[in-house]
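Hello K.,

You asked for the raw outputs rather than the summary table, so here they are, unedited. I folded two proteins back to back in the same session to keep the settings identical. This is the first:
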Amino acid sequence: MNNIIKSVVFLVFGLTCCLPAYAQQLEKKHFHHNEWTKGRFSEAVTVSGPGKWVFLAGVGAEAEKDGSILHVGDFAAQCKYAYEKIGKVLAAHNGKMSDVVKLVTYVVDIKDRDAMNKCRAEAFKGVELPVHTFLVISQLARPGMLVEMDVIAVVPAK
C-alpha cells in the first residue's frame, strides 16, 4: 500500500511539474509577406514559447510586389522605406519597433553612417534602441541596394 501511495504522489508531482513545461514548447513558423520572396527565403520566422521570437530576413528597399529596388541612389529614402517595411512585418506578427531586440545594418559605403544613425533614431523614436551591429560590405543582395537590415524581435505570446 505504501508503494501505491508513493507512486500516486510521484505521478501527480510529475504531471504538475511537466505539463506547464510541455505547454510552453517552442513552435517555429516561416512567413512570406511579399510575392517575389516565395521560394527564395523566409521574410520572417517566428518562434513561440513564453514569448514569440520574430526573425526578419534582410530588409532593404525592395518593392513589395516585384522586388525591384526603390529610391536608387538615395540612401535616406531607402533607409526610411526599409524601416517602414520592418514596422509593417512586425505589426503582422503583433509586434512593434519597441519589440526589436537585435538589429544588424549592412551598408555599402561608410559615408552613409551618419544618415543611417539619423534614420535609425527616427525609426526607434520614443523607445529604447535594440542591440545593433553596423557593417560596411562591398555589395548587397541586389544592384542598387544601399542599406539592408536583419531584425530579431520578441513579442508577447498570445
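The second followed immediately with the same parameters:
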Amino acid sequence: MPLTDADIFAAGSLLGSVKSGVRNTSIAITETSSPHIRNVLIKQLSQEIHAHARIFNYMLARGLYPSYHLDQMIQNDLNNAQKVLSIPVQ
C-alpha cells in the first residue's frame, strides 16, 4: 500500500519531535542535581534514541529521508514547498 502525503508528513513530523525530545532530555540530564532523576532521564534518553533510530530507518528504507543524498533531500524539500504553496488560502 503506497504512503500518502499525510503518512509522509506524519513520519517526518514524528522524527522531528523525537529528535527534539533527545535534545531536551540531554539538556535536562545536565541540569539535574538528583542522581535518581538523572538515572531516570538517562533511561528516557536511551528510549528516545532507539525510537529515533527506528523512525529514521523506516523513512530511509522507504526513500522518505535520503540523508546520504543531499541533492535528493534538496529536491524533496523543494517539492514539499511547492505542494504547500499550491494549497489554496481560505
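The helical segments are 5-31, 35-61, 70-85.

Happy to rerun anything if the numbers look odd on your end.

Regards,
P.
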